Amino acid sequence: MTNLFARSSLLAFLTLTAAAAAACSSTSQSDTSDHTGSGSTTGSDGGSDAAPAATCAHGQVWKASSALIEVSSFGFWQGSTGYIKKSADLTTEQAAALDALCVIPEPTGPVVSDFNSYTIRITDTNGATTTYRATDSNVPAGTVTSSTPARIDYGSLRPYLATIHCVTAGQTRLTTGASDDAGTPPWSKAPTLSDDEACQNGLFAPYSCADVWLKFQVDAPATYDLALTRCFGSTRLHVFSEDGATELASGAASTEPACASVEYAFPKAGTFLVKLEKTNPAGCDSNGGAGDMTIVVRKP
Length: 300
Fold this sequence. Notes:
By secondary structure, the chain is of the alpha+beta class. It folds into 2 domains: 2-161, no CATH class; 169-298, Jelly Rolls (Sandwich), CATH 2.60.120.380. Helix content is 14%, strand content 34%. The protein has 3 helices and 16 strands. It has helices at 2-27, 92-99, 154-161; strands at 66-75, 79-86, 103-104, 117-124, 129-135, 150-152, 192-193, 199-205, 210-218, 222-230, 234-240, 247-250, 254-255, 261-266, 270-279, 291-298. Strand 1 (66-75) and strand 2 (79-86) form a beta hairpin. Helix 2 packs antiparallel against helix 3 (154-161). The N and C termini lie far apart (49 Å).
């Protein structure tokens, strides 16, 4: 079974690489690298190969009148994650990256799978919203119709993605239930939540009742509100000490469409644990929903 999976994965990778090369050739792109690690919206480090299209005219996508940008992404391996930021809150680096976004013709060629796709929504000061899309290395992605959002060049998007450091749902798949390693707790592989309030951190919950663990780094005493913004089933959030021995706070149990939240005044700097407790309305002896949820961190 393992060998079959490995051969299948290799075939998918080779197919993706070939399609990416064709797409890049047709749009004069220099970036053909994958971008699915950990620690950011897509795990990218925005390296030197993130050059935008040579024909890019700055200021065509992100304009002086742009007020808000929402980036959401999903990939089979990465899972989902997102980032929402107002223009007034952008860093100088982020503003420069958005100014360089380019629209390119829709790539042609065979459609591939297991890549990261991105939806970019930009809201103007007058309330009008324009939606764009992008894919890793500009690979072709499904049927194109007259209503398909315009395509943003992946190379021009990467510098902005490199400024984002949010948890992806795929990073939490190893933090559900018991640890694979004997003698280690289930949170030993848990990713660390960003305190960036723009992050729509992803987390994965299985069909069964489960606990999903995250770490949260506090740099100084402060009160934080941790809240699910997308959920299913019955959810509850807990805050624990770093060793998991002491529960410090617990929010009320909530059933969809209401999502769980917990607020806690962290008394000191340090690493704390956050547990999502997911149960099924029909009981834990039967399966419920499964998929990606979203959690945000805010100062009330």
